Amino acid sequence: MQATNMAADTHRETDTSHRVSSLNHNDKPYHIVLAQQFDRSSIDQLCQMADMIRTIANSRQGGQFLRTMLGHKRAMLYFIQPSTRTFLSFTAACQVIGMPFSEVRDRSTSSEVKGESEDDTIRTLSQYFDLIIMRHPMEGFAEHVATMLNDMPRTIPVMNAGSGKDQHPTQALLDIYTLYRSFANPRAERSEPRYTKNVFAGKTIAFAGDLLRGRTVRSLAYLLCRYPGVRLVFVSPPELKIGDDILDYLGKHDIEYELRDDLRKDLGEYDAVYMTRLQDEHDKSGESKAIDYDKYVLTADMVPDFKSNLTIMHPLPRRHELDEKLDATPYAKYWQQVRNGMWMRAALIATVFNVDVAIRDHYHAYYTF
Ligand code: NCD
User: How much distance in Å is there from the Cα of 279 to the middle of ligand 1?
Assistant: First the structure.
């Protein structure tokens, strides 16, 4: 029995590494589809790049320099699932690094209504654009597109901006970046040294809410496996527990975790709490209505139970699970999280198009003393 399990596990690992190797080109993330594509050094470098871009973008000359980076490329934002933040975050990121962009947000305006397959729509886009940023309701579709684009005469990268209930890797990168900035010593240096230290070791991060269908939590859990010594606590209603695939992955990477069902209990243990809303758009027939979500809310009256330097995160949009009264407290990091997303996505696009080297050189020439 054990041998069979081990064989199945090895098969799954091989399966993930096979998937990762077709998404990476020259051992570097090219199509950005799965959080498992990122190792520790690629995450750390993206965080440094995000910091450099935000520093450079602060001045008129710096902003002008950044906008010369990708003026010769074009991005297509193919967003056929609702989005405010991720869509605007990517458009703002493109503006920061001077990449012109177009959008498709409604399939009813495309030739798909004439019977064209979605695959052919994407193949067509790949002839006009140099990058497809995609939000799609179907799990696995972005990965399918990546494989399809690998076989096109003109291969361009795809970035997964949310794939059904499965993954949201760019959100996870901005979440890591936000946690890093929150946990690191504020007096630590802004550039390289800040992101080489494992600031997650010894920290306990709680995820609360709909962990079964929340793709941001799934992707972030994968990324946190790169930081030995972090401890994860998944707090959810029994019906909305985090998937076993994630727990298996944590186990394989020796990451300590625990499953709980009440956020208020043991709240004082957490260094960060990552809140999520009920993902009821995935209901088949209103089954979420029967779920008691009251134990997965964070309210201002809970402040006395917080650790003194607790970090509160939320991918947003929020509902009642996160009290607006907490917004003005030093614990709230979710509005910074939104802004961090713009810098992280600019860093990611710059890295995929290999202009990160020019940005790094510019930073070292003008911003380090
Ligand atoms: C999240 C998403 O779309 O998965 N939002 C986002 O991208 N910031 C979370 C959510 O919708 O609850």
Answer: 9
